[in-house]
Amino acid sequence: MPNGVIAVEFYKSAFNAVETYRLETPDGLVVKLSVDGAEFWISDGSANEELKNPLGGNSIRMILIVADPDPILLML
Asked: Does the predicted model carry a pTM greater than 0.85?
């Protein structure tokens, strides 16, 4: 099972995430999820060699969308 599918199922189970968008292509999966109004995206690793995990193996890419990113940036 691809990592994106595993991640999506984890967030649905652990955080009661709701799937609001899904795109499945030969290169992988892209899914938009929402938890209490906070939306984020999960995708499988890229087929593009330049975007692959430099340490080898597979990776998950996550994008978190918030109205005001400044408080989130302060946490990093």
From this structure: no
